[in-house]
Amino acid sequence: MRAIIQEQYGEPDVLKLAERPDPKVAPGEVLIRVKAAGVNPVDWKLGAGYLDAMMETQFPIIPGWDVAGVVEAVGLDVYDYKVGDEVIGYVRKDWVANGTYAELVSANVRLIARKPAALDWNEAAGLPLAGLTAYQALNRARVDKGDTVIVHAAAGGVGSFATQLAVARGARVIGTASERNHDFLRELGVEPVTYGEGLVERVRALASDGVDAAVDCVGGESVDASRELLSDPSRLVSVVDPRADEVGGVNMWVRPDATDLAELSRLADEGKVRVFVDRVLPLEQAAEAWRLSREGRTRGKIILSVS
Ligand SMILES: NC(=O)c1ccc[n+]([C@@H]2O[C@H](COP(=O)([O-])OP(=O)(O)OC[C@H]3O[C@@H](n4cnc5c(N)ncnc54)[C@H](OP(=O)(O)O)[C@@H]3O)[C@@H](O)[C@H]2O)c1
């Protein structure tokens, strides 16, 4: 199969297109013919070696954790999926080696769910990792109807899902973004505020009592601002900044979860969650996708189209 590989940690330029053996399919796994692979900041962070202290890696790495595709084969004792099923997955395995930037990827059934029919392949590939992060962050922050929630980096991959999911739960959502994204956020039912100095005052101008919960996808000043705006610090969930733990909140790392993913798929089919695709690039331009992602200006998702 064709795959993107990296033989060492480094900058996006380390990525290259190569021929690799087709993956084996273990018991409990399916083999997925990849239609599209979602790009996430963690892909290039891993690729640069930033997570080396906590994740086992086996070079050459095929990067990528997000996938949408068609089941091509099933392993022993797989009774829940059959050849031809359309699936999505957050394919984070126990070690980093055979990811989704490839024509084929194997995945345990614990990591996948049925593809929402309402989404095309590119949209579907953008849903798993960022969607699960948003969904689990809202759960950890106990976001419910009537809450006022702030989402930091509301226009990004995780943020665009967190805002929509919070609105769907009946929350009032305030989202931080640069001004070029304010109309986009309004379309999602979000009250936009510009980040940077004076953020707390700008939020208080909208919500004088502050907020009930916060989902942070930025870190640093957004943790401090959230702490000031929250009366209950345990309802701060940061997916980036370990300091959230120190101020009484939660520093969260998304878990692969087939039940949560199926729920997201259902919400997408109900039209409650849309996937905003910023850019689609062919598989061979994975390095360019990483460069774009590293700029930190993505609205929604960057996707690699594979077949
Ligand atoms: N712990 C976990 O489980 C987990 C899971 C997923 C992601 N993450 C991490 O969470 C972060 C966000 O991920 P993502 O996929 O959402 O990234 P992303 O899509 O690349 O985020 C891009 C967005 O960030 C916004 N942004 C940039 N600087 C900002 C600031 N200072 N304040 C507010 N918004 C700002 C940009 O909006 P403007 O263009 O308007 O500035 C842009 O829309 C990354 O660091 C990622 O590694 C962690």
TrEMBL record:
Residues 10-304 form the Enoyl reductase (ER) domain. Pfam families: ADH_N, ADH_zinc_N_2. InterPro entries: ADH-like_N (IPR013154), ER (IPR020843), GroES-like_sf (IPR011032), NAD(P)-bd_dom_sf (IPR036291), YIM1/Zinc_Alcohol_DH_Fams (IPR050700). GO terms for molecular function: oxidoreductase activity. This is Zn-dependent oxidoreductase, NADPH:quinone reductase. It comes from Saccharomonospora glauca K62.
